Amino acid sequence: MNNNTSNIIEAVRAELTESQNLLDQLNQLAAHARQRGLPIDYVDISIAILEDFIPYVYSDLEGGEHERALEASYAVFELGKTAVGELEEFLMEQLKPVSVPRYQTGEIHIDGASFHGMTKDSGSGALEQRPVFFTGYGHFSQVRGDVEKFTRYGINLIQVEFGPQSVFPDETTVSNAEVEAFLLDRWRPSNAKPARRAEGEPYRTRS
After folding, report:
1. What is the pLDDT along the chain (207 residues), one digit of tens a residue?
2. Helix (H) or strand (E) holding 42
3. Which of 72, 73, 131, 136 could disulfide-link 12, Cβ–Cβ 3.0 to 4.6 Å?
4. What element of type H or E holds 143?
């Protein structure tokens, strides 16, 4: 290991330590904000990112991805600093937090160029039929393990691909076993159920 690599590893570890301190501070500030009923949806995204990416960066270090770890550690640290500042301003009433109209699982209607569905305001709790945006992830294996995190990331849609090999295990068999196993496994922790659409019913998605 050359001196440059050693310096990078030392710098990343130091920055990750600072990021973990920021995360601890964020969780304390967020708890106070929630007690006061403040909507902190956007800051909560930053908290979720720190919770996920601090371990990811450590993993990069162990895997020899030093340059990527250096870049990511800086981004995580800066994100944490910004989020702490925002929460402090919320609590001191120097900045007003923005609530989010979160889509609620149910019927979706198309009106002009928009999807319309039921939403719940994260601040007031008010329900409203309004245009909704669907955004999410798909394909990559990590997404299957992160379904429970979707709400914190502002995600309300998942596309998991099951190819022909999954549903046609041989030339005479059609099987939904892999699909059903995924659904059962992913929704068991929260006792929630995936939305299903019978023929002729409106489209539904999971909140």
Report:
1. 677 889 999 999 999 999 999 999 999 999 999 999 999 999 999 999 999 999 999 999 999 999 999 999 999 999 999 999 999 999 999 999 999 999 998 899 999 999 999 999 999 999 999 999 999 887 777 777 788 888 899 888 887 777 888 889 888 999 988 888 877 766 555 444 455 555 555 444 444
2. helix 41-62
3. 73
4. helix 141-145
Residue 46 contacts residue 15 (beta carbons within 8 Å)? no
Pull the structure tokens for residue 64.
């020899």
- Cα dihedral: 152, 154, 158, 159 (round 10): -130
Distance CA 23, CA 15 (A): 12
In this prediction the pTM is 0.79
Backbone angles phi, psi at 14, to 5 degrees: -65, -40
Interatomic CA distance for residues 102 and 121, integer angstroms: 6
Backbone angles phi, psi at 57, to 5 degrees: -70, -40
